Amino acid sequence: MRIKSMVKRITDKYHTNDPLLIASHKQILIFYEDFKNVWGYFNSSRRVMMIHVNSNLSEELQRFVIAHELGHRIMHPNVNVPFLRSNTLHSIERIEREANQFAVELLVEDQLLLDGLTIYEAAAVCGVPVELAYLKKIPR
């Protein structure tokens, strides 16, 4: 399933694009922690799902991290990205790009682009890192 249609199905189901509310609906706990070099990560333990977010990030970046980690949970439920990163030579670029695209599609509403904002302006308004704005699929 394409990422854009996956995000649409989720936002229609939960009537929101707020990653905090979606996480709550999916019974995913969110923890804010003092990390030095990590923005966040997803894990589960004994069927309890958790997103860990760097408490030192701005509120907007924290929201983006939550959306990104939701993307991992929804699109890559059986992939342990930290394990792959530290223990294998397997490329995680595709997995990270897909989670970033999920977050961008979730946070940047199509209507902003239809109203005339550029993808970069819309990204800035929605708290998405501008360097990832190109991942937004232009609505038709």
- Write the H/E string, N to C: HHEEEHHHHH
**Strand order in the sheet with the most strands:** 1-3-2
Instruction: Provide mean pLDDT, rounded.
Output: 90
| Rg computed from alpha carbons, rounded to a whole number of angstroms | 15 Å
User: Which bin fits the share of residues in helices?
Assistant: 40-55%
Characterize the main sheet.
3 strands, mixed
- List low-pLDDT spans: none
Task: Name the structural class.
Answer: alpha+beta
Count the E strands: 3
What is the overall silhouette? globular
The total count of helices amounts to 7
Features:
140 residues; alpha+beta; 3 strands; globular
Characterise the protein shown here.
The protein has 7 helices and 3 strands. It has 140 residues and is α+β, with helices and mostly antiparallel strands. Strands 1-3-2 form a 3-stranded mixed β-sheet. The longest helix has 17 residues. It is globular, with a radius of gyration of 15 Å. The protein starts with a helix and ends in a 14-residue tail after the last helix.
Summarize the structure.
With 140 residues, this protein is of the alpha+beta class. It has helices at 3-14, 19-25, 59-75, 81-87, 93-107, 110-114, 119-126; strands at 28-33, 40-45, 48-54.
